[in-house]
Amino acid sequence: MNTENADGIRMPGVGFAVRLCSSVFICGCLSLSAHAEVTAKDAWVRGTVPAQKMTGAFMTLTSTEDAKIVGASSPIAKKTEIHTSMIMNNVNQMHSVSSIPMKAGVPVEMKSGGYHVMLMDLVKPANAGDVVPIVFTIEGKDGKRTQVEVKAQVRPLGSR
Ligand SMILES: [Cu+2]
Question: CA-CA-CA-CA torsion for 19, 22, 28, 34, nearest 10 degrees?
Fold first, then answer.
């Protein structure tokens, strides 16, 4: 039995991939009416100096429905995490969180000293005036995930 094509890819696998794509596509269509819509206000990224490998992004996000932020990514960073900051033993420490809960209509502030987006392993510096796209993955109450792109403006190093 020969189930391989010229590239050695087994055909049943290809069929599965196609089915997977079409089901994702259908979910995308349904999400237009039924899912949380998330908007961003005052999105910005703290500018970096040339050797700096990470920086933070800050904004206010509001969802029309209860939802949670479960991830983020940006083309300027190899790795993007959602962080929270807290004072422990008089030291401001930050660590990654798996999600941020959002209540319908209640703004979630991402700011210095609280939740923020951590852009890590930067592939290029963030220069004041640049616009950095950040894509958030939002999970609705029903577990469905959608993506929202936010354009964040880079502010000079030292902005708070
Ligand atoms: Cu951080």
Answer: -70
Question: Would you put residue 92 in left (φ > 0), alpha (ψ -120 to 50) or beta?
Answer: beta
Smallest Cα–Cα separation from 84: which of 64, 67, 106, 101? 101
Ligand 1 centroid–CA 46 distance in Å is 12
Query: Which two tokens mark 17?
Result: 């991939």
Give the distance (Å) from ligand 1 centre to CA of residue 56: 6
Residue-wise pLDDT for 48-94, tens only, equals 998 999 999 999 999 999 999 999 999 999 999 999 998 888 888 99
- Looking at 1.10.3210.10, 3.40.50.2000, 3.40.50.2300, 2.60.40.1890, the CATH number of the domain 36-155 comes to 2.60.40.1890
